[in-house]
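Expect sequence, tokenised fold; for instance:
***
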Amino acid sequence: MPSRLRVPFGYLAGVLVVGLARPSPASLAAGGVIALAGEAVRLWASGHIDKTRALATGGPYARTRNPLYFGSLVMAVGVAVAASSLWAALAVTVYFAAFYPSVMREEAAFLSARFPGEYAAWAAEVPLFVPRLRPAGPRGTRFEWPRVRRNREWQTALALPAMAAVLWARAVLFP
């Protein structure tokens, strides 16, 4: 799937997940904890990245080359757990399988062309997606809150309580 469709299809997947959801207080609590962990990874990553200007290699980028996508997956797993529906989990799985492998390939090609030497050294040490337990490779970036703001991570952070509220309403109004 073309990466430009990732965001619109993400909204569609979100609506589908809510429609398929059968949340309970326990599933909302468990899913919320998982989703918050995913947002924490995204927040950490957002504080290290200066998109297209420099190659982020510090913090979570010393563990995986795609911590934003990894954090998004953890968040999505949290939402699927909160939804408490195998069909919702399947929708999340299909969405990620359809978009993220090609998005990561496109991004790897772009970064390799933009930062050839730096990227090759980093990619040789740091896995594409599943994080290493120990950091590796060059670690040339440091976390900065202004980067988090510039990268508009607050939008994703606000999506979590919004989704929690929608799933809670789904549980109360349409059990």
